[in-house]
Amino acid sequence: MAISPLKAMNGERVVVLIFVLRVLSSLPLALLPHALSLSLLSLFSLVVEIRVDNSPSLFKTRPGASSGIILGAVTLPTVMLSKLIQLSRAVSLQQIEIGELEHMTMQFWAASACSCGVLIFLFIVTWCAANKKNPHFSCSVWDAKFSLSCVILYSVVCCISLATISHTGFNTALKLLWLLCHGFATVKLIQHLLSTFPFCASIGEANLVTSGLVLYFGDMLACTISKVCRLLIPPELVSIRYGIKRSEIGIVIQVVLLGLLIFSAVFKFLIHLWEYFWGANNSESRERKEIWRSLIFLTSLGFIMIAVAPSWMMIVLDFDVHPVPWIFQFIFSEPFKRLSLCIYWLVLIYASVLRFYNISKNSKIERILLRKYYHLLAVLMFLPTLIYQPKFLDLAFGAALAVFLVLEIIRVWRIWPLGQLVHQFMSAFTDHRDSDLIIVSHFSLLLGCALPIWMSSGFNDRPLTPFAGILSLGIGDTMASMVGHKYGVLRWSKTGKKTIEGTAAGITSVLAACSVLLPLLASTGYFLTQPSLSVSAHFDLQKDTGMVTNKSFPTCFHLEAFLKGKKFIY
User: Would the keyword Glycoprotein be found if you checked this record's keyword annotation (predicted)?
Assistant: First the structure.
């Protein structure tokens, strides 16, 4: 018997839908097609999640976790739509070019296509599994008709929206093909992820990770194609999709991640090649083979990161300086502040690891609670840096992500002499959500803090946006886990472990932190140091009356003036 979506609603699904509705309520009329597409995507994901949760286990997902399909499907499109709302204000204020808004429009549709492709895949899999179990299965016909209607309407809205930013029908067709490639690549990648790393993630988490990877590296691929094959691509596509200005730090981080992606594929190929030709020779000792593997690892890593990836950056992105000297030049442009921050970070990391590593091996405290102390450590490390050295923190997050990726490759492949040591060290901080195949907890914390900062680069008229990850993970998630573990009784869903008490504690703690942070930012002059928050060209302070005349809606200065006791004339 089919289950009605209204009857299957639980607290977790209601919260996600309220979050989506809050974003949709802020949309201008110009973004009405995007609102309609996100609404259809939300309804479709709700139907798919209900079907998957009421079907036998079809994938090897993380035990004890809810599927999280609706959350994983709508997160990226909703974030992109929020950025579109922000950029639409910037266009009306003439602070950015229209090309940047059109680029973000393509990013929104690409993220939506990734989620839609995964949802179609999940629906087909559950449908086939149900029909195989019962050949006379007919109770989900309504679900099929409703889902098909959502997909068709979504496709029509997507075509109309893309036609409005395209000059020709051929240009629109190319963009639609590009979106189809995003959806297909995401489906293939999530299949590979769930089969290669079983029991490591829920379906929603896997969807979010694969969609983000396809979106990020798809942008790199398109940049490369548009540069190398410029004559084969219509100029409109190149100028709209990839003509935006990129920051130097963003380019350096992008080339580092691209280099590590290429390295992982090349290293795997070289290892298989070496084992095929020389691995059969058992006369060599095991230690000698490990040394050869380490030499292959170091040689291929050094060559790709020093020669191949920087060459791509210089040719495709027109970056004239090698990234290594550029990084040193950037650090030593303000040596006292930035080197002092590095020393401060190293001292905190050393003291924390020395303290909590021994506790994790001997204490009976649950590791999920013990790891929350590292969330508080993230607040101590990143919050002061974000206020006083935000650009340096951008680069530091990229460097930390690169180090984490290299260490994880060393751990997985057991590269001598660090592989086993790294594995033993990381195992002290794992719990049921990690596995021996891959450990993702440190990546989750780092990316959770870094992504809001990276995505708020460029125009940003909301002062707390860069702090969203640090506050929600460092303070909100920590309080939610501790309160929920100790006092939680009411659960959001039957399969999940999240409680209403923990959620309330997390929300309250973040609101309290914001109430403390806002006056601190105003007193340090943080708002005026950010380019998009600068108000020198938009406001006229009337010193005699203490009045502020609003000429162009820079929200952050409103906040700062309010905290300083000013009045506003709208």
Answer: no
Give every strand in the sheet of 567-569, ordered side by side. 539-542, 547-550, 567-569
**Domains of the chain: which residue ranges?**
5-245, 334-564
- Alpha-carbon span 249 to 270, nearest angstrom: 31
User: Is 175:162 a contact under the CB 8 Å cutoff?
Assistant: yes
pTM assigned to the model: 0.84
Per the CB < 8 A criterion, the answer to whether 390 and 334 are in contact is no
Helices 203-228, 248-277: inter-axial angle, 10-degree rounding: 100
Structure tokens, 328:
């040193």
Gap between the Cα atoms of 344 and 348, Å rounded: 6
Q: How far is CA 20 from CA 24, 40, 149, 305, 449, in A?
A: 6, 11, 20, 40, 22
Return d(Cα 409, Cα 404) in angstroms, integer: 9
Q: Residue for token digits 């939300």?
A: 42
* Each residue's pLDDT tens digit, 202-228: 888 899 999 999 998 888 888 887 777
Contact 115, 190 (CB under 8 A): no
Give 153-185 pLDDT, tens digit per residue: 888 888 888 888 776 777 788 888 989 999 999
Burial class (CB in 10 A: 0-12, 13-18, 19+), 436: exposed
Residues of the chain with pLDDT under 50: 1, 138, 237-241, 535-570
DSSP string, 539-568: EEEETTTTEEEESS--HHHHHHHHHTT-EE
